[in-house]
Input
Amino acid sequence: MKVGIPRALLYYQYYPMWKTFFEELGASVLVSGLTTKATLAAGVERLMAETCLPVKVYCGHVLELKSQVDYVFVPAVRSLEPKVFNCSHLLGLPDLVRAVIPEAPPLLSPDIDLDQKSSKDKHGYPSSSPDVSFKARRVFYQTIYQLGSHFTHNPLRIKAAAKEAWQAYQDYLRLMQTGLTPPEAIARWEGDDTHHPSAIGHPPSAIGHPPSHTIALIGHPYNLYDTYITHNLLTRLRGLGVRVVTPEMATPEELRQGVLDLAGQPYWAYEDAMVGALGHYLRDDGVDGFIAVASFGCGPDSTLLDVAQRAAREASRPFMSLIIDEHTGEAGLVTRLEAFVDMLTRRKKMQGR
Output
């Protein structure tokens, strides 16, 4: 069987794990191509204008895969820890895809929810224990076996595939913590060294000098690393002689501590991509400024962006937010990046650095 994985949303966080799991069960995996104008237009055509940009892009990738695979993998990630929840679009992603792309092949749509509790309080609400309950773990394991049963009925083989997938995920995390972005880490993980710079994390500028500034680029991976919707943001920053650090280059423990420092406790899934990364890099005096990337109309991001802006202002650190949608122009984005880098240069001169 051939399983299609859209190159959007959670692809940048979990692709090596997903690919390993399906291939260990004997399936082949096909990933949609890079986002193009046609990809985005196809997704926009199927959805209401109020739908956020990442979901429009995602549906465009599903449409690209629909005639090439037996299944499309569209997980519904509800919660990854107790009392921490995902946005409504990711909660109902399989239902949304079925509704707007009725001609899509069957979906593999496991429901990932680790907020389920084994006990309830006197009002009938789940208990507030911070630990993942036994019930949640049991349901999660059942979900994995249900997903694997599309390919084999041997539970031992499914268990072995899940173990290999988890190891692939850990290897992927370690690659990113060496200074690779997700696309670069995926290329390295797959044995392709032709798509990542020769000096990851410390790229030379376009004129051959060492990086003049270090900027922390914060935001969700599906916003940061889709080269079409961000107009090659990362490449443009490096071309301006900037060293770029990203959330994935920090450890999960460092990101979690960043969330605790700025927000007290996490509420939204993947909150560490913005608040956690900002909290972590605020402790690094070598980071000269911050650029946050968020999609227009995203409810959780609008809240997290405000938290990040306030924290950066209180720390007197330069901060710029980029809000993107399908109408974001390349010229305006490039002008803002150049102005921000120029501001960092003038600030360093005033500080005598």
